[in-house]
Amino acid sequence: MSLTRPLLFTSALLLMPLGLLAKPLQIYSEEWEGFTATDGSGLYLDLVREIYQPLGYQLNIHIVPYKRSLDMVRHGGGDLALGVYEQEVDDLRYPRYAMFADDVSVLMQDKWAAAWQGEQSLSDQRVLWQRGWGYEKYIRVPMQWFEVDDHDKAMELLNHERYRYYLGAGVLFEQSPQPGYRIKFLRWLRVYPVFSQTLRGEELAHQWDEGMLRLLKRGRVAKLFELHHMTQYYPSVASQ
Question: Do 51 and 216 meet the contact criterion of CB atoms below 8 Å apart?
Answer without folding.
Answer: no
